[in-house]
Design goal:
Length: 226
């Protein structure tokens, strides 16, 4: 938003015919919302509000850039929302730790629901990576990614599966979205850069799963009772 101010404004004006003023407001809201929300999350200051702001920005971009009609971009945005839900769940963990040892009834249920929903939504990222190509490498990638994605979704061997997905997704991200190899004047550079950093955000969500675990609504949790 900052380094491509005029391009973003002109795109919004051309797409929606809203005029330079409203297009500029859109870019400003996006810039402040993204930077402000991220700084608040990193600084551990009112994380719930920060996540709400970032939710709003993701939904705003989904509508403004007509992502609703592009399944690949839509699924990736849903995965990004899943990562935000896991950040929100992690902030609730910290909040509960302040009252460790105090009896409670159902305090962890919202956190567990957030973790479950976040895990399910992260899976949308891997749906966009499936390619029906008759090559051994692609078939192995689809199978491995599909199995690991399913394990994370149902919460079985969750931390190990999420860690393997981090490794797989990081490798694919650097291979498929190497935007730094594309000249500045080519539009493909911007698309790859968008995908690269969005995928990094989803990788961050997976690392949250590695750190937090799957939560109460998972096979891993129920195995302890069995």
């Amino acid at each position: 938003m900052w380094v491509q101010w005029s391009e973003q404004r002109e795109y919004m004006d051309a797409s929606w015919g809203c005029g330079k003023f409203l297009a500029t407001i859109f870019v400003i809201v996006n810039l402040i919302g993204q930077l402000g929300g991220c700084v608040m999350v990193l600084g551990r200051w009112r994380v719930s509000i920060a996540c709400g702001v970032l939710f709003f920005i993701v939904i705003l971009q989904t509508i403004a850039y007509s992502i609703l009609w592009d399944l690949q971009f839509l699924f990736r945005n849903l995965a990004l929302i899943g990562a935000l839900l896991l950040v929100l769940a992690e902030s609730r963990v910290e909040g509960r730790s302040l009252f460790a040892g105090v009896p409670s009834l159902g305090d962890n249920k919202p956190k567990n629901i957030l973790q479950l929903t976040g895990r399910i939504m992260l899976a949308f990222m891997f749906v966009t990576l499936f390619r029906f190509e008759l090559s051994v490498l692609q078939i192995l990638q689809d199978l491995l990614g599909g199995i690991l994605m399913m394990l994370v979704t149902i919460g079985y061997k969750t931390k190990l599966s999420a860690l393997l997905l981090v490794i797989l997704l990081t490798t694919l991200n650097f291979y498929h979205n190497a935007w730094w190899t594309i000249p500045d004047y080519k539009p493909l550079r911007d698309f790859l850069k968008y995908d690269f950093f969005q995928t990094l955000s989803v990788i961050g969500g997976l690392l949250m799963i590695v750190y937090l675990g799957p939560g109460g609504v998972s096979m891993d949790e129920h195995k302890k009772e069995w």
